[in-house]
Amino acid sequence: MTGGSEGVRCLLMRGGTSKGAYFLADDLPADPAARDELLLRVMGSPDERQIDGLGGAHPLTSKVAVVSPSADPRADVDYLFLQVAVDRAEVTDRQNCGNILAGVGPFAVERGLVPAGEERTAVRIRMVNTGDHATAVFPTPGGRVRYSGDAEISGVPGTAAPVVIEFPPGEHPLLPTGSTLDVVADTPVTCVDNGMPTVLVAATELKVTGYETPKDLEENLALAERLRAIRLAAGRLMGLGDVSAATVPKLTLLAPPRDGGAITTRTFIPVRCHTSIGVLGAASVAAGLRVEGGVGEDLARLRPGDDRVRIEHPTGFLDIESGIGADAAGRPVARRTAVVRTARKIFDGTVFPRSAETAPLPARPQGGQG
């Protein structure tokens, strides 16, 4: 399918604390450049209001999931996540999104890629961006996806049916630099990757408390320059190369908890400060807090013998089940990661992209994961 003024089949869904457009791969152009050009027109980018498309004028509401049957025997479907920039003609596949992931299982059932169970359905998902896997389990009474329920997640009003997402241990190192503590741009950090390359930094090292609002942090120009220097240096150290045009690694500022959780966080994605925290970013934070000698060791309040880590963020909290162990060489490795999210179908129909004659061509970041 080439997509165009005749319209493209699309399902708009809230996944976790994000919102995105979900497509079958067969309903989009096979050529990545043509696909990205179409998605820019669908989402209304570049425009800070995205007034002429589906986008919601924020990175958290300008996301796309492309889903297809998987040839991987360990998966039912493949999920490619694409971040569509708001104010730039850019589409990138250099990261995963664990919130949009929450809607992939229900979408796969809605589109007939996976048959629904009579009570609940498990969908095995390969995340194309990194090659990692996840299994999403959600209620399907009578063979239909149920979106209503009593699960509540911070950052989303009301309640919905739970989507339990379990992540098997990844094949990449939990500590990409091989060290529990590195100094980059004169700042102690712990670089961790438990599904999302993340740099953990004590907020006080950057002359902030870690309890500021996202708006206040975004307006701190000195902080922005410091974060940029840390991210560029850490990206190279983590083997990601030049990350100046990439959305990874994420930077998470850590502070002691205030509301009974394990840690307080402020996460940059990479310039805007997240109003909550991404699922995969939270998985990396939770594992990083358990690394002996890491920057979070003296800040976190972990309960002995309890795998649950409550991560506080600007609009509430996110609970992660996280356990780590050691490999034969004594290096820390993730053993178990699971999270409860929710998803809701908003509309299912045809989206009509704006005219190709009025849309700028997309810029494709070079290199990275994918």
UniProtKB/TrEMBL annotation:
Signal sequence segment: none
Keyword Isomerase listed: yes
InterPro entries according to UniProt: OMA_tautomer-like (IPR047687), PrpF-like (IPR007400)
Gene3D superfamilies, per database record: Diaminopimelate Epimerase, Chain A, domain 1
Gene Ontology MF: a single term: isomerase activity
Keyword Hydrolase: no
Recorded superkingdom: Bacteria
This protein's UniProt keywords: Isomerase
PANTHER family per UniProt: ACONITATE ISOMERASE-RELATED, ISOMERASE YBHH-RELATED
Family: Belongs to the PrpF family.
Protein name, as recorded: 4-oxalomesaconate tautomerase
Species of origin: Streptomyces mangrovisoli
